[in-house]
Amino acid sequence: MDIILQLDVQVANLLHRNALSDQNLIELFTVLANRKAIIRPQHPGETDELLASFFIVETSGVVSEDFLNELRNITYVQAAYVKPQAEAPC
């Protein structure tokens, strides 16, 4: 299951610039590593700051409320929610 994650614009810019050792990202990467999850941009190559602040966190299996709360408790995380399943049009 995937999680949609919206980050503060400045922190999102760090991720897009691959500043992976930046102190601001350590907490996020620790939570992701502990949950064996990976992060990728939802809109790769996007220049609009708002759209570029969205990421997809890929996990294996069910996402617990504890995991979502861990992400939401990071100061620069603006939103974290389970990506709704796609539905066939009616």
Give a short synopsis of this structure.
With 90 residues, the protein is an alpha+beta fold. It is built from four helices and four strands.
Q: DSSP helix count?
A: 4
Class by SSE composition: alpha+beta
Please give the oligomerization state of what you see: single chain
Helix content: 25-40%
- Give the overall silhouette: globular
Biggest sheet strand line-up = 2-3-1-4
Could you describe the 3D structure shown?
- The protein has 90 residues and is α+β, with helices and mostly antiparallel strands.
- It has one domain (2-82).
- The chain is 36% helix and 23% strand.
- It is built from four helices and four strands.
- It has helices at 9-16, 23-34, 49-52, 65-72; strands at 2-7, 38-41, 54-58, 77-82.
- It has a four-stranded antiparallel β-sheet with strand order 2-3-1-4.
- It starts with a strand and ends in an 8-residue tail after the last strand.
- The mean pLDDT is 90.
